[in-house]
Amino acid sequence: MFGKSDDKWIEIAFGEQKLPENFSAKNADDAEVLKSYELLREDLQLLKDIPEMQFSNERLRDAILAAGPKASAQTPWIMRWGWAVAPVAAMLAIGVVFLKGNFSGADPRVIVPSTSLQNSTAVASNLEIPITERTSGKLSQNPLLTVDDSGKSEMVVVKARPKSGTGRRALKGGGVRLAMASNPIAVKKTPGALTTSIRAESASLSRDVVAEGMSLTRDSDSNQATVAADAMMAPAKAEAAGNVILIDASSDSVTGLPNATEVSKNSEKVALGG
Amino acid sequence: MSADSDEVLVLRAREGDYKAFELLFERHRLLVYRFAYQMTGKRDDAEDLVQEAFVRAYQNLGRYRDEAKFTTWLLRIVSNLTTDQMRTSKRRYELEQKEATGGLEWMTIGSFDDPEENLEQDRKRNALRKALLALPEHHRRMIVLRDLEEREYDEISKLCGCTIGGAKLRVLRARRALAERVKPLLGDK
Questions:
Q1: CATH number among 3.65.10.10, 3.40.309.10, 3.30.365.10, 1.10.1740.10, domain B1-88
Q2: In A76-97, which positions are buried (b, 16+ CB within 10 angstroms) versus exposed (e)?
Q3: Nearest CA-CA distance, residue B176 and chain A, Å
Q4: CB contact, 8 Å: B150 with chain A?
Q5: B19 touches chain A (CB under 8 A)
Q6: Architecture in CATH of B90-189
Q7: Digit-coded pLDDT (tens) for B123-155
Q8: H or E segment at A243?
Q9: pLDDT tens-digit readout, A213-226
């Protein structure tokens, strides 16, 4: 009797829709439904009679005085500005995580100071043992050291990002941490005599290590010298002794590798870092 | 905007003029009381709601925005208060229990405190009142606003936070629900 189909009769009974002109009482059910809703509307009018309110101004005043002024909402600043601060904080956190990852990963870097190599001697300083993959005997993207035919070199900074720690070794001992690549690094050079004093400093912050026993090998095909860092070669020893290794451009007749000699830091052959 | 319009009185009350707020109270307390009474069915409860509604209105005058009528804002406050009260009302729980277990017999039988209970009109009124109070609160609010307080649909829509069409639909459903509940009463006729 009171279903959704009655909606039309409800609206008519409550005066929100007009009775269709062609409506007739021939349908007894419809007429009965409509009549019942009209009665309901009439009966509802009875509910408009309500007991008189006994609520005085004094009672309201007392209630307001008792309640007092509403305490201003003291929302903490984090609630008010948190929505703005949160993304920034998240970005910072992500940035810190990435940066820290780079630091701990000892972002490989080779810095060769610009210097005149009049005597065909290249001095490499602040050589950080790179953590990089070997790229088929050369670092195509990042030349380490270029020496033109006039014998002048440029400062070259090489940054090679390690790929998921491949080829990375970390040696710890005696308070020295040396991160180095298991694969050799490549130093590009022009033909000619080249004596390089290599001072290696680990990328570990504020910890300098002179990598001793690094051999400079020459790739005759690609005309590149390759510095092979061997983790097993007592890297701190040369530093303790205050020596550096001079690598001569002349090759050994048997091995084809450049000759290297260990000299004191104070040697006049050492142009920088001595 | 006349000097004694609701908006002006609100502005004055915001600035600390309590007389202005008393004027607002005098002007609208019956409206609030009627709504509260129809929702609760008890004078004491309704008066408590009136008190709480005006206290809250006074405390939150700073939040009142002119886009809604003051009465609409006031009715929204008391409507929210009623909803809160219903949630914790033991009486509501009892009514629901009655409804669940005994159907609607209690509407047409039983004793009435009213001394004129033998009169048909009073019996009908009481029955209707109980049927109304037994409605879910959202249906009851629609019946009270539209059929008892005769508020316009646009005001109802603002009160309910819906469209005018949505308000009409809610009222329709509420009427249908009420008709279902008073069916035994209508049958008696």
A1: 1.10.1740.10
A2: eeeeeeeeeeeeeeeeeeeeee
A3: 7
A4: no
A5: no
A6: Orthogonal Bundle (1.10)
A7: 888 888 989 999 999 999 999 999 999 999 999
A8: strand A243-251
A9: 344 434 444 444 44
